[in-house]
Amino acid sequence: MTEPVIDIHDIEVIIPLICVECKQYHEIKVKYSDLLKLYKGVKVQNCFPYLSADDREMFQSGFCKKCWDWLFSNKDITKKENHHAAKKN
């Protein structure tokens, strides 16, 4: 009996990420082969076209959507207001 061949490039991996601002935990699922492309210098948007723009930004900058929106809004960022009032995603 022949063992089935598993191509590790087809495997999906879960990347654990923590937002650098709010410290919330996030998981992003990507294909292993696409992760290898990223490590070889391919741009994140070309490696993971199936991820949302928010997930790609989290992967690249470390900011979750809420923190990114807050950081680049017109609000005074010197005030440490609670931009995560509804923390549950």
Walk me through the structure.
- With 89 residues, the chain is α+β, with helices and mostly antiparallel strands.
- The protein has one domain.
- It has 4 helices and 2 strands, in the order ββαααα.
- A two-stranded antiparallel ribbon has the order 1-2.
- A hairpin with a 6-residue loop joins strand 1 (12-18) and strand 2 (25-31).
- The chain is elongated and about 65 Å long.
- The model has no long low-confidence stretch (mean pLDDT 84).
Write the layout of secondary structure elements.
Elements: E1 12-18, E2 25-31, H1 32-39, H2 44-47, H3 53-61, H4 65-71
Antiparallel strand pairs: 1-2
Provide a brief overview of the structure.
This protein is 31% helix and 16% strand. With 89 residues, the chain is of the alpha+beta class.
Shape: elongated
Order of helices and strands: EEHHHH
Rg is 17 Å
Largest sheet: 2 strands, antiparallel
**How many separate helices?**
4
The stretches of 5 or more residues where confidence is low (pLDDT under 50) are none
Number of strands: 2
Distance between the termini: 47 Å
Write down the domain tally: 1
Strand content: 15-25%
Give me the side-by-side strand order of the main sheet: 1-2
- Provide the structure class: alpha+beta
Q: What is the helical fraction, as a range of percent?
A: 25-40%
> For the residues shown, what is the average pLDDT?
84
Give descriptors for this structure.
89 residues, alpha+beta, two-stranded antiparallel sheet, 2 strands
